[in-house]
Amino acid sequence: MILQNLNQRNGTSEVDLPSAVLYLLLIMLGWLNIFAAVYDPELHPSIFDLGLNCGKQMLWIGTAIVLLLVIMLIDHRFFETFAFIIYGALCVVLIGVLIGGKVVAGSKSWIEIGSFAIQPSEFAKMATALAVSAFLSQQYVKMDNMKSIMTVCAIMFFPALLILAQNDTGSTLVFSCFFLVLYREGMNPTVLVIGVASAFLFIMALIFDKIYLSISYTVISIIFILYNRNVRRKISSVFIVLGIALISSGITYSVDFFVNNVLQKHQQNRIKALINPDADPLGFGWNVTQSKIAIGSGGFIGKGFLEGTQTKFDFVPEQHTDFIFCTIGEEWGWLGTLFLIGLFLSLFLRIIYLAERQRSNFARIYGYCVASIMFFHFTVNIGMTIGLFPVIGIPLPFFSYGGSSLWSFTILLWIFLNLDANRKQVLG
Amino acid sequence: MLIIKKLLNQENGQWLSNIMKENRVLILQGIFILVAFVFVVKLFIIQVIDKSYEEEAAQNAIQRITEYPYRGIIKDRKGKLLVANTGVYDLMIIPKKLRLNGDLLSFCNFLGIDTIEFNLRLKVAKKYSSVKPSVFFEQMSDIKFAHIQDLLSDFPGFYVQARTVRNYPESVAASALGYIGEISKEKINLVGKDNYKSGDYIGISGIESFYENELRGVRGVKYVMVNVRGEEKGRFKNGAYDTASVPGKDVIASIDLDLQKYAEKLMKNKVGSVVAIEPSTGEVLAFVSAPNYDPNLLTGEAFSQNYNKLVHDSLKPLFNRALMAQYPPGSIFKTINGLYALQNDIIDTTTIFPCNRGIIACHGKHCSANFTTSIQFSCNPYYWNVFKKIINQGKSGNYFKDAKICYDHWREHVVKFGLGGKTEIDLPNEKKGILPSSNYYDKVYGQNRWAFTTIFSLGIGQGELSITPVQMANVACILANRGYYYAPHLVKGIGRKDSVIDTYTKKHETGIEQKYYNAIVNGMTLVVRSGTGFLARSKEFIGCGKTGTVENPHGADHSVFIGFAPRDNPKIAIAVVVENSGFGAEWAAPISGLLFAKYLNHKIEKDWVENYILKRDFIRDPAKPKPKERHKRG
């Protein structure tokens, strides 16, 4: 009803119902699963118990809905106009956090307002998305222009560096997701290919022996040269292919150095746990091992709501925040995880669909930013719980417990839904 | 492969980059779908295909608590307690929760260990699991428990778990009752892991072992959920998988406690056996293997210490002589040969053979014997002749073939007396004794190369024959019953039912007519009244019996007596063996007489016989072997 009222204000367009439904489904399911994660069968707590995280999440959800209503009431032109100001303000806050922030779990990323603690880095993603969209939507910006690329990279990496300085590696990495947006807006795909290839090389270097990898890269490049007439025709191409093999081997060796000498101890352990969680199942491999046990024990249909034993009894650490996916895996089984992944995928694809129907470049680019940020969280969060990614502490959108995270994703998504609702008022 | 080839052979090399430029939206959608697909597949693998995570989850969070049933108790035939349960207390530890807030030294003192031992046990417990409970100190007595209980609040991580152990209020009948102990790994594999697990107790010998399934009851299982710190978090699935424990059934033993105690008293300082059976039912009234041991030694915390002592004892108290010792039957076997000969018209009760001591040694003052006196005097030449006739019945013209045919026929009958095979008594590890088949002799001497002269000693119960005390007592039952027996058994009732398993209600007939038994019984009456069994004589009842003196090449002969009383309608049949003591008349017969009196009259007439038996200590003062020429007597 509220949505209809909101829509009536514009008269000409309305909020995208599928996205709104997906949003509400995700936050409600998230709430239920937080309840399941903190549920103690001996105490039979209520889901509304404000002393528990599920009760608090209910408050966060309530405020998030207020927040989205407020966003819907804001004029759609506000976001494009004030994009850089919002961005600038957030950067100032991030610097402020660095000076006077509160340290939680090794990261200096929290500021306290009264009794509430807020993580500005969560909101920095939304602000950066606005700034990137506002910059890229300008007429003179072309993705084949070196200056434009450098500028957009600077917009992306400045807050990322501030967050890295807060010692929050996970949130920093999220900013790399903007490359997906840049690719959509015409960036040379080679960057994306190189990015994916580097990640591939990095993981291969962790899993396999350096010498065998170098040999196989060399062998592959020689086979490539022998089979491809085009390459053989030009001597420079041959050198390029061999050069790639050499660089790959170089990366392989430098990864070892990087992991052992550059990364901090807890980061090293997270990477080691990914490669071989059984090496020290009670130490650095604990999170991954227990998370996989919890999810794996769910079976096909799961143990049933509130019947999970691994998550409830603290075998999985952070079971209501970063490892909330374990609760779904354990209590709802493969069907539950399939359903949840389906929900997320539907939301992502719906946003892309919505983005592509925008008349305004700003709205389209912002739409891609929203999809990319949420996709990155989704990939890394679920990937880490099932042992496909190292343990990087970033929340599952709408699902993980936490006000900052829920608010920032709500704002992120609903700004876009506001833009989409008003798309017809934009002159092509 | 096709795709790779296509990629490699693209003429302009731009194929891939063109696609990536032209279909940016599709590619991004593709990436989203691909990642979701990879997740779904990976989740399918760990959730549906790989079952190991379920086990690991259960190991994590579900604790299986075994509820031990109350093991059935064992009572004697009159309802007196033979085996009971007492509570003991296991001190359990969960190493992770352990805090040493109190005085460790006094804690150790109460347990009777030092701090080095304490740390050693702690290490063992930690090695097993730091979060799961394990036994730190087994089977504390009441007193230790009382002391420790006060200290426990200063030592979180320790707790006490009550359990029951066996207790033998009368300290008797160890060889019949057996004992229970921790199950061995081999045994677990044998009986199945469903029923037992490491650390469980199982009957290892005696009734405890034979009636394990009845006594044990059914274990209960309780599944509780625990959190990562090992704290209990309620029943798993509200107890849907829990099973209640069912207490074991009580067992009524056929043993008569008073008789058993008296028999053990008489057998003190002697090596041998007493088996007394109620002939009309086959119920064992007394079952003694001497030297015996106090069954209470094999319970409680000192089990392994005491067990080692018993195992290394040179007198082998753990060896169940009544069940497993095998002796040549000696003269008691003459009864069987006599019965066979009568039944098959080889002799009749009036047949007389001269006591020709030129053939074989004899004893006592007689120069010829008829059937009755042959039993009374245990005349060796008589049974030499009888057995000669048995083996040479003329069933074949060939002397050797005749021997074989006759031997087989004879053996067939002897088997019916429960010899050469198990009596089926309800105790494990029963020995069969030896009753050689004709094939055995064929093998040893060659076919048609053996005859009476080769095997004549069987006539007087020597030679290749051997027999256990249980089998001897069973023969006594057959004689008492004049022709049949019920398999001997130690248990007359299980649970509330007063019945026994089918094996013990089946009547075994010997196929020899009662009138011939009467002839034997006449002889056996004379044995007790005025023969070698005179020390078993009583004024109150007519006892019957047959003495035996079993040749023993390693020392003094074994003294043997089988008999029953009263003569008509017998209530008790008995077999007594006293190893390395001398004549049957000297030791086995008076012991039997005392036991008859005890069982039938509940009093002893002849104190001097009792004193004579009780005073003799064959263990400290072994009997001297008799001079060689006096052997072969009955």
Question: Descriptors for this entry?
Answer:
heterodimer, A: mainly alpha, 18 helices, globular, B: 634 residues, Beta-lactamase, 5-stranded antiparallel beta sheet, disordered N terminus
Q: Overview of this structure, please?
A:
The complex is a heterodimer of chains A (428) and B (634). Chain A contains 18 helices and 3 strands. With 428 residues, chain A is mostly helical. Helices cover 69% and strands 3% of the residues of chain A. Chain B has 634 residues and is α+β, with helices and mostly antiparallel strands. Chain B folds into 3 domains: 1-41, no CATH class; 64-253, Penicillin-binding protein 2a (Domain 2) (Alpha-Beta Complex); 257-309 and 320-630, 3-Layer(aba) Sandwich (Beta-lactamase), CATH 3.40.710. In chain B, strands 2, 3, 4, 5, 10 and 16 form a 6-stranded mixed β-sheet that branches. In chain B, strands 12-11-20-19-18 form a 5-stranded antiparallel β-sheet, with helices on both faces. In chain B, strands 1-8-9 form a 3-stranded antiparallel β-sheet. Chain B is elongated, with a radius of gyration of 35 Å. The termini of chain B are far apart. The model of chain B is unreliable at 1-5, 7-13 and 629-634 (pLDDT under 50). At the A-B interface, α9, α10, α15, α16 and α17 of A face α2, α3 and α4 of B.
Short note summarizing the structure:
The complex is a heterodimer of chains A (428) and B (634). Chain A has 18 helices and three strands. Chain A is mainly alpha-helical.
Q: How are the elements arranged and paired?
A:
The complex is a heterodimer of chains A (428) and B (634).
Chain A: H1 2-10, H2 17-38, H3 53-73, H4 77-81, H5 83-100, E1 102-104, E2 107-113, E3 116-118, H6 120-136, H7 146-165, H8 169-174, H9 178-184, H10 189-207, H11 210-227, H12 229-233, H13 235-262, H14 265-275, H15 286-296, H16 324-356, H17 361-385, H18 403-421
Antiparallel strand pairs in A: 1-2, 2-3
Helix pairs in contact in A: 2-3, 2-16, 3-18, 5-6, 5-7, 6-7, 6-17, 6-18, 9-17, 10-13, 11-13, 15-16, 16-17, 17-18
Chain B: H1 2-9, H2 15-22, H3 24-49, H4 52-61, E1 62-67, E2 74-75, E3 81-93, H5 104-111, H6 115-128, E4 134-140, H7 142-151, E5 158-167, H8 174-177, E6 180-182, H9 185-191, E7 201-203, H10 206-210, H11 212-216, E8 220-226, E9 232-235, E10 251-253, H12 257-266, E11 272-278, E12 283-290, H13 303-312, H14 321-324, H15 334-343, E13 353-354, E14 368-369, H16 371-377, H17 380-391, H18 399-415, H19 438-445, H20 452-455, H21 469-481, E15 484-486, E16 491-494, E17 507-509, H22 514-530, E18 544-550, E19 558-565, E20 572-578, H23 588-601, H24 607-615
